[in-house]
Task: inverse folding
């Protein structure tokens, strides 16, 4: 799956750069992701938030004075951690994520909602017990020997405020709607894992924000 994902990522990058040329606003965005998962059936121990990151570009197109459409291209970390019997397990898959949202702006206030799709790039598992730590690369695909499905999909929500014209601080939440367990596992097991991410973000725009 790695080669198809690479070409999809390259095509999305070209489309994003081209669309940005026609945007009213273009900027960069980065922040802290507090990632977790919804797991079914629920494990005996609860998964806990895993601090990770997001970084990328965004472009905004106005429909009217207050409404518009935003599109982004981000590198987004997801995953979770589990502590059990003195051991700590972490998994941190990294995605190329494309969010699209309809937004409302007024007097510096910003609110947006819309879908996103993510393409698995790379990531790492880690297992730590009594000071010993082992790590393993995450594999994306739909076979039994893969760790996560190659595609993630969900719905994103974001609210923020322009502290100064070019700088926006926001809080976001990505609600995973797709089971990211590889398809071959889904065919033999009813379990599901869905990514959920709380984000704290800064966005800087290179063009004026009124």
Result:
């Amino acid at each position: 799956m790695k080669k198809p994902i690479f070409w999809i990522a390259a095509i999305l990058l070209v489309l994003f750069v081209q669309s940005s040329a026609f945007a009213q606003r273009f900027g960069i965005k980065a922040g802290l992701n507090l990632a977790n998962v919804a797991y079914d059936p629920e494990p005996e121990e609860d998964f806990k938030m895993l601090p990770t990151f997001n970084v990328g570009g965004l472009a905004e197109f106005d429909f009217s004075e207050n409404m518009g459409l935003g599109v982004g291209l981000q590198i987004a970390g997801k995953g979770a951690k589990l502590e059990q019997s003195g051991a700590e397990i972490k998994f941190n898959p990294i995605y190329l994520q494309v969010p699209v949202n309809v937004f409302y702006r007024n007097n510096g206030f910003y609110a947006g909602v819309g879908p996103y799709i993510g393409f698995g790039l790379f990531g790492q598992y880690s297992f730590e017990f009594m000071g010993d730590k082992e790590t393993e690369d995450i594999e994306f695909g739909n076979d039994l020997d893969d760790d996560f499905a190659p595609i993630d999909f969900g719905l994103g929500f974001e609210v923020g405020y322009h502290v100064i014209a070019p700088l926006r601080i926001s809080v976001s939440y990505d609600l995973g709607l797709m089971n990211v367990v590889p398809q071959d596992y889904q065919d033999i097991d009813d379990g599901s894992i869905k990514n959920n991410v709380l984000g704290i973000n800064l966005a800087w725009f290179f063009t004026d924000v009124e």
About this structure: The chain is about 10% helix and 60% strand. The chain has a mean pLDDT of 87. The longest strand covers residues 109-129. The two ends are 43 Å apart (CA to CA).
